[in-house]
Design brief:
The chain is an alpha+beta fold. It has 23 helices and 33 strands. The strands form eight sheets. The protein has a seven-stranded mixed sheet with strand order 1-2-4-3-5-7-6. The protein has a six-stranded mixed sheet with strand order 26-25-27-28-33-32, with helices on both faces. Strand 32 and strand 33 form a beta hairpin. Helix 3 runs parallel beside helix 6 and helix 10 crosses helix 11. The longest helix is centred in the middle third of the chain and has 21 residues. It is globular and about 85 Å long. The structure holds zinc ion.
Length: about 850
């Protein structure tokens, strides 16, 4: 038997050097037998694991078939992606446990609650959540999930029995179905009969935007805290439903690397993560090391990757009493590619992922009670921390914008954080918090550490290198007023169900309707009104009419001489108000305190036709964020113009063109640039972001003065070079700017200050005329996050926004991203102001 197995192994291994693909045996442990009644992947999807890149539909089909065939597996669909693909989850445990699953789940959750001390851990299963390929073009994880699910369903013997008796495995075979599908299409369509491993082959060079991201080109491994994307919402719901003890996240990295597993760089662990978390991670790592040693694979740990940003899958669990683990496999980015470590085949990458998936559940099985005890202790410690905390709660809100506050409340809900309505309107530090526009979060709750992770401002750090952003303070991202309170007296009813907001027009008018520009969804409302062919105007100055006050940017819709009659108009505006959650008021007179409604200080607005430059040479993340904003939030019919055919497009129908950050690859050529200039001169509004500042300047579309950094290394050794350069990168931090609220770019902002997210080192000197600097960083701008001292000096008093005339048009630059990762609600209005009011600037 032994010799036979050995021979089999040899055969499956040898085949890897030829053109044949690995058999399933290449992946599976060969010292055990497998249930012949369980269908193998090839029986169902028609190809061997690793022979082709599995498409998501085939993956789902196999998992459904497996769940039907095995009493160890149940399957559920938790929703759909933007492209309508199912978000499936397999629950894998012994048939006995399956019969008792809800009880097991409840007992497990009890471990994190009051009274957990009385629970007996001896017979309690450990919960392990294993997820794959959140980056769609890192497919070895999802392809390994085929073999791994088969293994869990079919393996025989005491070891697997013990594993299944003592664990509940939540298997999420594809964290990113749309991205996986996109990449599978690419790799498969470029595969020849003869395997070509030449790095220059098209197979290894995906077209823009690649398969890494989801439908709107978001990096979903940054959305575990903000949960703005449907895939994250399904995943986070499963997380909180089960509170897993271990969560694994299987990725890929550069082709010439080997294999990485956590722990990462020790100095770059978030201070809110308990040290025991890292000790347990290190102990779990010994299982991965042993398993990879056994199959001869190289690996490393404690380098390069960190455990800092809680928005990532391998770090998010660490603030929730769980242990998150990152795996990174060198990518074949296709079927086989030459690398510094020899021929890197797709099956080899899959086998490493399979191997560490198995070593994860082995570690879980052997360390079970220790890890369960860690989780119990984590929540006990939270409780005693809470008792000592002088801050009893946090109030947040915006007295003029209910929707923004609602969206942050929605995140709290999705993260299972307890919060209340206000008992009454209150004022704290001069800021008014209105009932219905504000909420109260008690600090004495189970998820208190998660609340800290979301609300804390942090400006001192142990290390100066960050794999990702160094700050994500939510109330700053939402530009909400917030304050820490020493009592819970502001707490009203606990919010058990967050009801959707509603708004209406207060009554019918035969004269005019008005609404303030402050609410988050006003651009959606205005867009609907203008698209209907109605005339609307914007107020350049504040005024009061019939006892109601209106601020800069208020919108006026007169009743007379419109395409709808007064009754139709009332009905239409009511539907707009309801849909966009923007309250509107009717007035019966044009006579106001301040500018009268017929004043030339009301400027006529035009229907907008917005285009977004995408494709080669454009950063897909930034482009996707803008596409998502206009399409999903504001319901615009946004046209995506590709750089590939830009030169052949008639631009005259577009009122605004947005160019996100310039990325890699060829960009607009001379002809395209001239075309763009001509369109601006004829009245277009050109809006550029981040490093487009440089491009606008070089192409003489804007006159900008940059503050230049002349970074010179002194007493820095060659070995310290990358740390030195890393410390001067601005990976992502939050800065405070002063607003001139009378400038149209700032319409709808009620405060004189605004937090902005910046992840560049582009600094523009202010214009000599102060009215041309409506947004300017303050003298003490750092609100949260890391920035080097010399860069901080550069930010001070610089300007993140400039607008300049060119013929009849305008060129606008934002050096900072106003739409970062779909959760920077606070700065979205800036770009909408540029679109609607650019001509007034
Ligand atoms: Zn990745």
């Amino acid at each position: 038997m032994r010799n036979f197995l050995f021979a089999l192994l040899l055969v499956s291994f040898c085949s890897m050097h030829g053109q044949e693909t690995a058999s399933l045996d290449y992946y599976l442990p060969q010292d055990i037998s497998y249930d012949p009644n369980i269908p193998k992947p090839k029986d169902i999807i028609g190809h061997e694991v690793g022979e082709w890149h599995v498409t998501h539909d085939k993956l789902v089909f196999y998992m459904q078939t497996l769940a039907d065939a095995s009493d160890r597996i149940s399957i559920e669909n938790r929703g759909t992606t933007y492209e309508g693909r199912p978000l499936i989850l397999l629950t894998i445990t012994s048939p006995d446990n399956h019969r008792n699953l809800e009880q097991i789940r409840q007992d497990h959750i009890s471990l994190t609650e009051d009274g957990a001390d009385t629970l007996n851990l001896e017979n309690m299963p450990i919960v392990v959540y294993q997820g794959f390929s959140i980056h769609g073009n890192e497919p070895s994880g999802s392809n390994a999930a085929l073999a791994y699910a088969y293994y869990l369903a079919a393996a025989n013997g005491p070891k697997i029995e013990e594993t299944l008796n003592n664990s509940v495995i939540l298997l999420d075979p594809s964290f990113n179905p749309d991205g996986l599908q996109r990449f599978a299409y690419w790799a498969n369509t470029n595969k020849g009969k003869n395997m070509v491993s030449d790095v220059n082959d098209r197979e290894f060079h995906e077209v823009w935007p690649g398969g890494r991201t989801n439908h709107y080109w978001f990096d979903m491994n940054r959305d575990w805290l903000p949960v703005q994307l449907p895939e994250s919402r399904a995943r986070i719901a499963s997380f909180h439903k089960w509170m897993p003890n271990i969560l694994t996240d299987h990725h890929e990295m550069g082709t010439n690397s080997t294999y990485f597993f956590q722990p990462g760089v020790p100095s770059r662990v978030h201070p809110l993560t308990p040290p025991v978390n890292q000790e347990l991670t290190a102990e779990i790592a010994t299982y991965h090391a042993k398993a990879l040693d056994k199959i001869g694979s190289l690996y490393y740990k404690e380098e390069r990757f960190d455990d800092y940003f809680y928005g990532k899958g391998s770090t998010y669990p660490d603030i929730n009493g769980s242990i998150g683990i990152l795996f990174e496999q060198a990518s074949s980015r296709g079927h086989a590619q030459d690398s510094e470590n020899g021929l890197l085949t797709f099956p080899f990458t899959i086998r490493n992922q399979f191997t560490t998936a198995v070593s994860t559940v082995e570690a879980a099985r052997n360390m079970r009670t220790k890890i369960l005890e860690y989780q119990r202790q984590f929540y006990k410690d939270v409780k005693s921390e809470n008792r000592k905390d002088k801050v009893r709660g946090i109030v947040f809100g915006d007295s003029k914008d209910a929707a923004k506050a609602w969206h942050l409340a929605e995140i709290l809900k999705l993260q299972h954080i307890k919060f209340h309505e206000l008992s009454d309107d209150i004022t704290v530090n001069g800021k008014a918090y209105k009932k219905g526009h504000s909420y109260f979060i008690p600090t004495d709750q189970k998820n208190a550490r998660l609340v800290k992770a979301m609300f804390d401002k942090r400006t001192t750090f142990k290390d100066s290198i960050f794999y990702d952003v160094s700050a994500w303070t939510f109330p700053l991202a939402f530009n909400l007023d917030y304050a820490e309170l020493k009592s819970t007296s502001a707490a009203g009813d606990l919010v058990t169900e967050l009801r959707p907001l509603s708004a209406e027009v207060d009554q019918q008018s035969s004269y005019a309707y008005l609404f303030n520009w402050n609410e988050y969804y006003t651009p959606k409302a205005l867009n609907q009104i203008l698209n209907k062919g109605l005339r609307a105007k914007v107020a350049k100055l504040p005024f009061t009419v019939e006892g109601k006050s209106f601020d800069y940017g208020a919108i006026l819709v007169p009743v007379q001489n419109q395409s709808l009659n007064p009754a139709e108009m009332f009905q239409f505006l009511n539907s707009v108000a309801k849909d966009s959650k923007v309250p509107m008021v009717a007035v019966g007179t044009g006579s106001t305190q301040g500018i009268d409604l017929g004043s030339s200080n009301f400027v006529s607005l035009k229907k907008q036709r917005v285009a977004l430059l995408v494709g080669n040479g454009v950063t897909s993340y930034d482009a996707g964020e803008f596409w998502h904003l206009l399409d999903q939030r504001y319901d615009f019919n946004l046209t995506k113009l590709d750089t590939k055919y830009f030169n052949n497009v008639d631009l005259s129908k577009y009122t605004s063109i947005v160019i996100p950050n310039r990325g890699r690859g060829s960009f607009l050529d001379e002809k395209g640039t001239e075309k763009l200039k001509e369109w601006v001169n004829n009245g277009g509004i050109l809006i550029g972001y981040r490093n487009m500042a440089d491009w606008f300047s070089k192409n003489e579309m804007m006159a900008l003065n940059f503050k230049k950094d002349t970074l010179v290394a002194k007493n820095v050794s060659y070995a310290e070079k990358s740390d030195f350069l890393g410390a001067h990168a601005t990976g992502g931090a939050i800065f405070k700017a002063k607003l001139d609220r009378s400038h149209p770019i700032n319409f709808g902002y009620k405060n004189d200050h605004l937090p902005l997210f910046r992840n560049t080192n582009i600094y523009i000197e202010p214009d000599k005329n102060s009215y041309n600097n409506p947004i300017q960083y303050t003298q003490d701008p750092l609100l949260s996050g890391y920035i080097s001292d010399r860069n901080l000096e550069m930010v001070k008093n610089s300007v993140p926004f400039q607008v300049q005339r060119s013929g009849k048009g305008r060129v606008i630059i934002f050096t900072d991203n106003t739409n970062f990762r779909a959760f920077w609600f606070g700065t979205n209005k800036l770009v909408m102001n540029a679109i609607f009011f650019g001509k007034m600037m």
